[in-house]
Amino acid sequence: MRTAHAMAMASNLVTADCVEAQEFPDLSRAFRVSAVPKTILNGRIEILGAQPESAFLASVLEAGSIVS
Fold it and tell me: DSSP for the chain?
């Protein structure tokens, strides 16, 4: 979560939102949240659990290449 927000602050091409899964059960069900943190990139790539910054960046770059 912290890395996603740092990326969003550094680039206007990145946006990041954080939702407390227990406070929004309908949203959690819609996105099939079974573990936290759960990061969803471009609605296609899902990352479960905390990731090292380098792995998270690789996933973000992969998500960007899917959209292009």
Answer: -HHHHHHHHH-TT-------TTT-HHHHHHTT--SSSEEEETTTEEEES---HHHHHHHHHHHHHHH-
